[in-house]
TrEMBL record:
Official protein name in the record: Type II secretion system protein
InterPro entries listed in its UniProt record: N_methyl_site, Pilin-like
SUPFAM superfamilies: Pili subunits (SSF54523)
One Pfam match: N_methyl
Highest rank taxon of the organism: Bacteria
Transmembrane segments: 26-45
Length: 161
């Protein structure tokens, strides 16, 4: 009876040690990794689409800042988009022309945005008056890498979306 007891003890210990993945689990994991590699990885290789989206969000933020600055300062704030660069200027007096640059509150430097290479921006020039209204409705096209975004400034309210 002694040999049977040791055999049972060995088989019980062996059963406790057998832990791991089954072949179907490994195959399913490999299939999921393969699908991710085929679909997701190429998307991260071309950053232009992400750059277009990021720059369009930055333009929206800058236009909202320009509108709020015009209201807070009770001055005209001019927006200029040309050559992939956005700049903001403010008038020195009520109803005056825009000459000095509007300062970025975080850096204290002139507020400018420059698009990354591969991102193209339609040229535009307009202003926000002291009530935050734009001089004209604007639709600014930002594109690159087969992706395009549009930034719209509504005519009467100045709402940027």
């Amino acid at each position: 009876m002694q040999p049977d007891a040791s055999f049972e003890a060995l088989s019980a210990r062996a059963a406790q040690r057998q832990a791991g993945f089954t072949l179907p689990e490994l195959v399913a994991t490999m299939v999921v990794v393969g699908i991710l590699a085929a679909v997701a990885v190429p998307r991260f290789m071309d950053r232009t689409g992400f750059d277009v989206f990021g720059y369009s969000e930055s333009v929206r933020e800058a236009l909202r800042f320009a509108q709020k600055s015009a209201i807070a300062k009770r001055r005209t704030v001019c927006v200029s988009l040309s050559g992939g660069s956005l700049s903001l200027k403010v008038s020195t007096s009520f109803g005056g022309s825009c000459t000095p640059a509007l300062l970025d509150p975080s850096s204290g430097q002139a507020y400018t945005l420059t698009a990354r290479s591969g991102v193209s921006v339609a040229n535009a020039a307009f202003s926000f008056d002291a009530l935050g209204r734009p001089s004209a409705q604007q639709s600014i096209a930002i594109s690159g890498g087969g992706v395009s975004q549009s930034v719209v400034v509504e005519a009467e309210t100045g709402y940027v979306h």
